[in-house]
Design brief:
By secondary structure, the protein is of the alpha/beta class. It is built from eleven helices and seven strands.
Length: 261
């Protein structure tokens, strides 16, 4: 499995969303640089640009492959894990399977209910369109507007730089196989029902029509050391649409991990 590694110190594993690659999480780099002392391991999941899918054909197989990759890269060293969207579901699995060495867990617009028809989501809402994004996006305008809630030149440029390459480089045949077996065998919180006591962050977006926000909050009692946040004026791409608030909350999560250790 390909990984982009940078920095030194305590490992933090970052897991991207479905159909993207590790570059979608690189907007978080300034947070880790300011915090200092973090070895960032940005994975490309099977089927993403840098990682051939091989025979992987389900989310459970992706999750197990990520656990094996994390063990291979960090050994028995304590680490933190962060996941976005589909990567949030995988991060939850990793955090519970390897709990004795996990320092903290963060999900950003994370999947908590795998089956799309069982998710509680708000209606599709666009709060602001901005004609300045059109020349920036060109042929990618339609893909950008599938999920954009608050358009701006800044998040349009972020889409082109960080999301579009993964969308274009993904193995669509492999993604279709995995999408057909999208649920884990068992939800991590159900497989390991004892409360997760490490510092956690579950960040959601009020206008996220992909995964919603209330499904994450249904697990609040499982995470007594978690900050739960619902950010207004953001959809599924909350990392770029509410970049400052997202950065502040991730920074706070890293600080809480340091204090706990």
């Amino acid at each position: 499995m390909f990984a982009h590694e940078t920095g030194s110190g305590t490992p933090v594993v970052l897991v991207h969303g479905f159909g993207l690659d590790h570059r979608s999480l690189l907007p978080l780099e300034p947070v880790f640089e300011r915090s200092g002392g973090w070895r960032r391991i940005y994975l490309d999941l099977p089927g993403a640009t840098g990682s051939p899918a091989g025979s992987v054909g389900s989310s459970q197989q992706v999750a197990d492959a990520v656990v094996a990759e994390v063990v291979a890269r960090v050994g028995d060293e304590p680490f933190a894990v962060l996941g976005n969207s589909f990567g949030g579901m995988i991060a939850r699995y990793v955090a519970h399977e390897l709990r004795p060495q996990v320092l903290g867990l963060a999900t950003l617009a994370g999947v908590f209910i795998a089956a799309h028809d069982r998710r509680t989501v708000p209606p599709r809402t666009v709060l602001r369109q901005d004609p300045r994004v059109v020349p920036i996006l060109g042929a990618a305008l339609e893909a950008y507007r599938e999920e954009a809630v608050v358009e701006s030149p800044d998040n349009a440029r972020a889409f082109v730089e960080h999301l579009l390459p993964g969308l274009e480089g993904a193995d669509q045949e492999a993604l279709d196989r995995i999408a057909g077996n999208y649920s884990l065998d068992r939800e991590p919180e159900d497989a390991h029902p004892e409360p997760f006591l490490q510092p956690a962050l579950h960040l959601t977006a009020r206008q996220d029509e992909v995964v919603g926000y209330s499904d994450a909050w249904s697990r609040i009692d499982h995470y007594p050391r978690a900050s739960f946040a619902v950010l207004d004026a953001a959809g599924h791409n909350v990392i770029t649409e509410q970049s400052d608030l997202c950065a502040a909350l991730v920074s706070d999560w890293l600080t809480r991990i340091r204090h706990a250790t």
